[in-house]
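Q: How would the structure tokens look for this protein?
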Amino acid sequence: MEIKNVLVTGGGGFLGKAIVKKLLMKKLRVTSFSRNFYRDLDSMGVLQIQGDLSDTSSILTAFKDIDVVFHVAAKPGIWGDFNDYFKVNVTGTENVIKSCFINNVKQLIYTSSPSVIFDENDMENVDESVPYPEKYLAPYPLTKAMAEKLVRNAVNKGLKAIIIRPHLIWGPYDNHLVPGILKRATRLKCVGRKDDLVDTIYVDNAADAHVWASEKLISNPSLSGNIYFVSQDDPVSKWEMANSFLDAAGLPPIKGHVSAKTAYMAGSLFEIVYRFFRVQKEPPITKFTAKELSTSHWFDISRAKKDLGYYPKISTKEGLLKLREWLLQGDGKW
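A: Here is the predicted structure in token form.
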């Protein structure tokens, strides 16, 4: 199977742009489908198509003559109206799948999240066989799980697809995880145990996983339908990692501590108040973040190693040096 034309939804985003750069290095013709226009993508020679994932017609047109689609775009976050998440994450994925079938796209690489299996308990060295939980505390993991199921169903109908679950992506040009920590630097407190571990992944390593998944799917179509956790393969204390981000920005470490129970009660109270008064901005803490911050979540990535040849080319230490350099240059605005 010859691959020439590829499309990345959300190509101007943090992970999307890293994937675009990897694809350009392989001399492929790259198209980005996003809501906005990005000058840096334009300077790279990337064809940009502006549109909305919920608009079927614009996606149908964008996918014409495309060989591989990397569906990265999503609505992230831990707070907001369910319908807003559903429109992007579920309806958008439905439209992507439909357009893949109509345009005879050869394969789909879908970006998911380990949060789709989070059941509010510690998840230590779990693999891809863990089932979806019966309930979710936030619309993001729920709608991403719904989208995952759509992709898996499409595979049963003949679409070649792989699902990638990167966890806590970070690095230069991060516009979500690291800036969120830096903005809250003076208010942050450790929640629950301090020895619980989490997986993270440097953005270029996450991009590698997506590109390698596409390449392996070409040579081994039997991988279609598979789900893969990917990470730094180096579980770390979330508080140690957060302090590393703060240190990279020249900020002091986190001080103070609250129990997991107190954090959950606070999250419940904030959710009640914010919903009653229809507050749109994100609460200081929610039930989901309280559970997420007080539990371990790290994953067995042996399947990705075996099937995709995945390994983190950039170590956590090297990644933190690159992050520090970017932040010190003043490019990381928080």
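The chain has twelve helices and 15 strands.

The mean pLDDT is 96.

Upvote if useful.
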